[in-house]
């Protein structure tokens, strides 16, 4: 009989942790929820699982790869030396080693992380994207005339809504310049400024390498936000429970989408996934306008995998238990052909 696969779960950390340190305390915290959930799931599957925490020491990773000789890396490391832009480099390192890993390869991660390049590719293929401009650090923040207010000013390469607050929504050139400067200086980030697309906020979870499965669509609803106010998944809107309660923010399954619209969303998301060379699993964030136009906002390869988050919830609704989902992701990682 074939032996069960050896799986190395690879985690990141914001502060260095000695490789031999016991993680039980960390795994109890919200910050480590995904890691904890995945370890439990791997425990339920017929695999030999070990884990390693990566801060910036590739030597430790090399040693582990030699000693344990995993068949596949379950990749949950999306920052290196506190830098979230380096997730693609971690994966590139695994690609250099010729090691199978879960989730998205380096090209997909690179294209999706750059919020301007991904939009250029998609707009070439006639997928609706918001009008945008990039203002690199050291550049003057002047708004091109073609870009119409209201505008949302965001870091060019971030995630989890870092740097996005209500003040990101700007309606005058003065506010525009102020916010761009703030992101340049305080967040040390280049900036993308996008036309604000009013509409429903939809999250579409996709699983697969070649053959793609799209799970039931989720929506962030802004129940208590007055109709004329901007509706934005800001940092607080995502992570501050009290704030979410106050404004009636809730992640739920998208209700009453017309069947034709739902089909259009599914086809569009599969095209986006392929055009951005994503593999493994991803969550695609969209806006659906009152006229039922589908606008691309962002693609998130390797989205948060915690059991209670949108991706796993969507998979569950499609009939995949959490352990089954982790199993599918692991097997897709084993089979991926990237380089
Ligand atoms: N062009 C836009 N129009 C309307 N809302 C937007 C736009 N861009 C971003 N948003 C809002 O801001 C949120 C975060 O933006 P996003 O680009 O996904 O950043 P992050 O990568 O940090 O999640 C989105 O989920 C959406 O609510
Ligand atoms: Mg997002």
CATH superfamily of the largest domain: ATP-grasp fold, B domain
Briefly, what CATH class of the largest domain?
Alpha Beta
The CATH topology of the largest domain: D-amino Acid Aminotransferase, Chain A, domain 1
The number of domains: 3
Major beta sheet summary: 6 strands, antiparallel
Number of helices: 12
Spans of at least 5 consecutive residues whose pLDDT stays below 50 are none
Pairing-aware structural class of the strands and helices?
alpha+beta
Oligomer: single chain
Kindly provide the radius of gyration, computed on alpha-carbon positions and rounded to a whole number of angstroms. 20 Å
The run of helices and strands is: EHHEHEHHHEEEHEEEEHHEHEEHH
Number of strands: 13
Which CATH architecture of the largest domain is right? 2-Layer Sandwich
What does this structure look like?
With about 350 residues, the chain is of the alpha+beta class. It has three domains: about 5-100; about 110-130 and about 200-335, 2-Layer Sandwich (D-amino Acid Aminotransferase, Chain A, domain 1), CATH 3.30.470.20; about 130-195, 2-Layer Sandwich (Dna Ligase, domain 1), CATH 3.30.1490. Helices cover about 35% and strands about 20% of the residues. The chain has twelve helices and 13 strands. It has helices spanning about 25, 35-45, 60-70, 85-95, 105-115, 115-125, 175-185, 235-240, 240-245, 260-275, 310-315, 320-335; strands at about 5-10, 50-55, 70-75, 130-135, 150-155, 170, 190-195, 200-210, 215, 220, 250-255, 280-290, 295-300. Strands 8, 9, 10, 11, 12 and 13 form a six-stranded antiparallel beta sheet that branches. It has a four-stranded antiparallel beta sheet with strand order 4-7-5-6, with helices on one face. A hairpin with a 4-residue loop joins strand 8 (about 200-210) and strand 9 (about 215). Helix 2 (about 35-45) packs across helix 12 (about 320-335) and helix 4 (about 85-95) runs antiparallel to helix 5 (about 105-115). It is globular, with a radius of gyration of 20 Å. Bound molecules: adenosine-5'-diphosphate and magnesium ion. Adenosine-5'-diphosphate (ADP) binds next to strand 5, strand 12 and strand 13.
């Amino acid at each position: 009989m074939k032996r069960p696969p050896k799986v190395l779960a690879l985690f990141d950390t914001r502060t260095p942790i000695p490789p031999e340190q016991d993680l039980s305390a960390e795994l109890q915290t919200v910050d480590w929820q995904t890691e904890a959930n995945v370890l439990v799931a791997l425990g339920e599957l017929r695999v030999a699982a070990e884990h390693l925490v990566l801060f910036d020491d590739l030597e430790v990773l090399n040693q582990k790869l030699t000693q344990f000789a995993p068949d596949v890396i379950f990749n949950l490391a999306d920052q290196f030396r506190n830098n979230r832009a380096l997730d693609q480099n971690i994966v590139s390192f695994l690609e250099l080693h010729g090691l199978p890993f879960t989730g998205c390869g380096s090209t997909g991660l690179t294209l999706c992380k750059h919020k301007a390049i991904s939009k250029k590719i998609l707009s070439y293929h006639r997928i609706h994207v918001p009008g945008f401009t990039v203002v690199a650090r050291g550049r003057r923040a002047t708004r091109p005339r073609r870009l119409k207010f209201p505008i949302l000013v965001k870091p060019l390469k971030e995630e989890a809504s870092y740097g996005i607050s209500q003040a990101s929504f700007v309606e005058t050139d003065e506010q525009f310049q102020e916010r761009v400067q703030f992101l340049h200086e305080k967040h040390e980030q280049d900036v993308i400024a996008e036309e604000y697309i009013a509409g429903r906020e939809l999250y579409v979870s996709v699983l697969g390498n070649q053959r793609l499965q799209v799970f039931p669509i989720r929506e962030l609803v802004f129940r208590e936000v007055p109709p004329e106010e901007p509706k934005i998944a800001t940092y607080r809107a995502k992570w501050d429970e009290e704030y979410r309660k106050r404004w009636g923010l809730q992640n739920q399954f998208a209700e009453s989408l017309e069947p034709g619209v739902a089909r259009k969303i599914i086809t569009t998301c599969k095209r986006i996934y392929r055009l951005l060379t994503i593999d493994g699993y991803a969550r695609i964030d969209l806006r659906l306008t009152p006229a039922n136009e589908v606008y691309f906002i962002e693609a998130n390869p390797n989205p948060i995998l915690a059991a209670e988050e949108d991706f796993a919830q969507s998979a569950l609704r499609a009939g995949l238990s959490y352990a089954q989902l982790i199993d599918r992701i692991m097997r897709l990682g084993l089979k991926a052909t990237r380089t």
